[in-house]
Amino acid sequence: MGPQEIILILIATLIVVPVFLIIPLIALIDILKSKFEGNDKLIWVLVVLFLGVIGAALYLFIGRKQKLIDK
Predict the structure, then answer these.
(1) Fewer beta carbons below 10 Å: N end or C end of the chain?
(2) In whole angstroms, what is the distance from residue 53 CA to residue 5 CA?
(3) Helices (DSSP H) in the chain: which residue ranges?
(4) What average pLDDT does the structure give for the chain?
């Protein structure tokens, strides 16, 4: 493995790792700040915690529609 490959791996790591941390964090903040019916909030928190980026993507596409709207 040459220096070009090492540099490429380091750059990819610096880009990919924050994405895998930031996206679930954004989803968790949104879940905790929002109101849900019944145990939906707890379920979505567990989904995001256990499935990481996949759970966050599921929440962003499915769970955000389940939030209760304050009037």
Answers:
(1) C
(2) 26
(3) 3-33, 40-51, 53-61
(4) 91
- Domain edges within the chain: 3-66
Size (the chain), residues: 71
Q: Quick check: 70 and 34 in contact, CB under 8 A?
A: no
Determine what percent of the chain is predicted with pLDDT higher than 90: 66
Mean pLDDT of 60-70: 86
What's the whole-model pTM score? 0.77
Q: What is the rounded radius of gyration, in angstroms, for the C-alpha atoms of the chain?
A: 16
Spatial separation of the C-alpha atoms in residues 36 and 42, rounded to whole Å: 9
